Model the fold of this input.
Amino acid sequence: MSKIYKSAERALDGILFDGMTIMAGGFGLCGIPENLIAALRDSGKKDITAISNNAGVDDFGLGMLLQTRQIKKMISSYVGENKEFERQYLADELELEFNPQGTLAERIRAGGPGIPGFYTKTGVGTLVAEGKEHKEFDGETYILETGLKADVSLIKAWKADKEGNLIFKKTARNFNPMMASAGKVSIVEVEELVETGELDPDQIHTPGIFIQRIIVSKNLEKRIEQLTTRTKKEGI
Amino acid sequence: MAWTREEMAKRAAQELVNGYYVNLGIGIPTLVANFIPDSVDVTLQSENGMLGMGPFPYEGEADPDLINAGKQTITELNRTSYFSSADSFSMIRGGHIDLSILGAMQVSEQGDLANWMIPGKMVKGMGGAMDLVAGVKKVVIIMDHNARDGSAKFLKECTLPLTGVKVVDMIISDVGVFMIKDDGAVLTELAPGISLEDVKERTEANFKIEKHLLTL
Done:
């Protein structure tokens, strides 16, 4: 059965519902599934719980789903770049669960192999630890964090073959590999789709078993949030 | 004269040791990269998934797939490796990073740190700060010694929500340097033109004074 879909809209067909939980890869606007987020917006599905490190910016990335009020709850580590997010949050229109970034990454990694919980030192003695089980190991205190899964994971990779084997590019990898394994259905959009056998099996970052549907990105913007450059001869 | 932002960053760069893996926070800590001595070889980690961070790209050469944790465009070095956020925080949470240099809103005399949230104001999130202070071997804070309204930031107890408990090893502020040890804080250096009386007046925390206090 082919995993290849002709468009983001078709790839999302039949698997979306109101009140669903999605994961979306990316760090800031780097490595986000642009086409799939736009198609999720166009689907009009609402009351979504979105698990993503950030919330995009006002008019791009997950920010687009905030503008249309399709997101009920965000689970993130940092949301500083989004004014509409701030407005909805302060007006109590949006639920927000902050996770330390490493805890968020580990919760998603745990979701893939079905690990229901794990202990970590991160957050002990802070607001993050409130209401969580505390346990001592070798004289140090740890808190219990739970694994996370999603109904649908939206993934961005650089290359895929037709089996769904993925290669990511540079820092666009970020949360994408763990989210691919934590989704009941994981959909990837890629810049380049190659024939099976063309990727070096030793260089594959995410094996195809974690990917159910594949599309090729169209009109990728790849917006840069903080363009920072130097002129020749200058130091860092 | 109290230290400027650049001078604080330059002082922090003296904490870098050959062979260290280092994570620099956003803001003044990022400036530390400008002052790494030529004789010291350190590898910078960026928590979005990069070890061996290079300088900013030349104009026209920025790559949207290559950014640092402050979302700035960056370049790679020949030693660079890329990895997932989970692997990145295995490095940070598992104690594999030697040094983290971060900013602060408040630090207590026991080394508690508050740098992510002011209740009642918009909360942006802690990002990787709680993981860094929980896992990295040595935590150095660079901060202005007082808030804009003049209030003390080095306190007996933090009043803002904490990022971590007993996690700070050293504070570099515009007035000098404090070490935080198991038995309390010690003032070890004074910035040029700053007197002991100045520091006492501008600090709420209790601190001892190093026997051989370095005055510049």
